[in-house]
Amino acid sequence: MVTRIYPLKNPVQDYAWGSKTAIQELLGQPFPSDTPAAELWLGAHPKAPSEVQVADRWITLDRLIQKDPAAILGKPVAEKYDGKLPFLMKVLAAEQPLSIQVHPNLDQARKGFERENRLGLPLDAPERNYRDANHKPECLCALTQFEALKGFRPVEEIVRLLDRLSLAFFSDVLKTLAERPDPSGLKRFFSWWMNMDAGPRAKAVTQVVKAAESVLGGMRETFWMKAFNRRYPGDAGVLGPVFFNLMELAPGKAVYIPAGEPHAYLKGVGVEIMANSDNVIRGGLTSKPMDVPELLHLIACRPGPPLRVEVRDEGEERIYLTPAREFALSTLFILPGKPFKSGKARGAEILLCTAGHGALIDKGNNETIPMHKGASVVVPAAVSDYRIEGEATFFRATVKVSWRV
Question: Catalytic residue among 201, 282, 318, 396, which?
Fold first, then answer.
């Protein structure tokens, strides 16, 4: 029966940059743990799908959807996305910086996936860029103070910061960049840096970090460049805080990453939602395989200040407004005497409780599911409507085409 709400059991990814406390504390597990927990995945991605309990056994969410896509996803979503859940929700806990990376657009992902299939690369090959044929626009909402690199700074800021360091190494290329401060000039400058031989680049990195300590002092850019250089000495990404916008998100604030935008999450915990993909092209600050030519092919050199996600408050619900079609994200603030009542016309939803306690009431089946911090459920489209009572905070993920955003 797929017309009921299912509690989820979700996989954890133990990447080295993860936290030994954040996800463990969310899930009510002992902490600090011996190994890091980097990402909690909530969804139906074939790499690591969530599980639901049907009768007396657990099955993966993607298999449940296969049994009746229209009932789980809603007929319009099932038809549009070929019977697959189009989004993936995560809790991301970064204790160390993630790599500098970009994600492809839909056409690039399809072509890249086909190309690597023709080369015979296994889907789990470390050197593979494209593990599926989907794009990966994403939105992250901070649960704690969160720092990130996002998109290229305005060109005049890049030039000003490097000029302040008074390094002859950059004088000619900075003059050229200042004379052509548009996307093509910025791409020429960034490509020059990324394609530089390792020896001269490592020497330049050392000079920049040393000069930044002297000239930029206690600026956060200096802090991160020093931290990057300790972990990845001489790496091209060490200068990321000069090239890219360094931004800090307060809890409840969100950022949207479109295709091609260079970014790196640096530190903090957040709820992330994205199109259902695991395609990542890396260009720095990582021990994993990098593909600089592919990164330079995909990268969008759009200089400008970072844009945060706008929100719209509707009663108990705060909706994060992004241009993505595959997903919509909102926060539900449940207070005693002020329950949240769902609409009847919905697609599939995933609900994650991040604070407090409550009760999720399936009105059609007259079933009540206790909810607490760390608990999550999938709500099929065939469920008529539901209500949440108690005192708790939830994140709600669904598909925008089936919602009112």
Answer: 282
